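Board notes (copied after class):
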Amino acid sequence: MTSPREWGSRIARTLAARRPGQTPTSAMYFTGPLADLIGEDRPIRRLAGALFAGGDVAVILRHADRRHLDLFGEQRFRRVYFLIDDDLFALGEGDGLPADYRRRLLRYRDGLLRQLLPRVTHVVAPSDQILAAYGDKIGLRLDPAQCYPLGSLRHHDGAGRFEVVFSGTRSHLEDLAAVAGGVAEFLRKRPEARLTTFLGGHAPKALQRLANVRHLPPMAWEDYRRFAAGNRFHAAIAPALDTGFNRARSFSKLLDHAGFGAAGIYSRQPPFTGLIEAGKSGLLLPNEPASWRDALAGLAQNYQQSRDLATGAQKLAQHVGDPGRVRQFWVRELGVKI
């Protein structure tokens, strides 16, 4: 019998294959680790969009739409699992999110989701805070899986430009803005360094018009995963404002950073406090621009430290992001026989 750890190694080698319709959430929590079990003649079938079924058990991955409600009217399911990796009940002024993004989430929460929840029996989430918001459901904790092979660390040998990445989407824009002044000061003092983001024209003003910054346009998930597989960075930054919404996020940024082969720098708050061992698998900082400036400067002067932190991050990511663990969870919950 194949052990969960062996499944994890096998899956990690194959997750880079293109599969249509994937999102980061679906890939990290379901379709990636279960890829070989999903299909028309396989134990798990896709019914529509982010709705899957194994026998008479249904799984909705984050976002429901009208098709899902129609299907629930046509079919009876013994159990319905709803996987959600954002705290939709922590939304409001002061959550640090762009206004249009917040409105979109609120519209979903107060519209389609409200119609869906009476059919849901189980809520699956990476945060106890999220689960507490669905107190009348059976709550199950599930952390995300590593979605791409871990990057080589040869770039930490010291040759070439010191590469930094911010892998957050626009939902993290205010988080980056909080420390952007310090990051910009580091970049001005170290012209041989370079920052890469995926914010396009939405980057904070402090990080615009710098010669050693590139703001790539936002990428579709499969494009981003190919980018991660083909690019390496020395450091990766993940600042986060101290908000309820951010405290309920998953540790997926650790998995991003490990894929890039980077030393991760995080705000000193959940979900990274208690997970990152400061100085071994990453750095934990207050949300003060000078702290982020100094941390980047220190790593740029000490490639051995960046390598050591990246090594620790990859070991941690292999452990907490083991795809075999996610696979085992769903095989058990769906009653899939393999």
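Comment from the instructor: Residues 303-320 form the longest helix (18 residues). The chain is about 40% helix and 15% strand.
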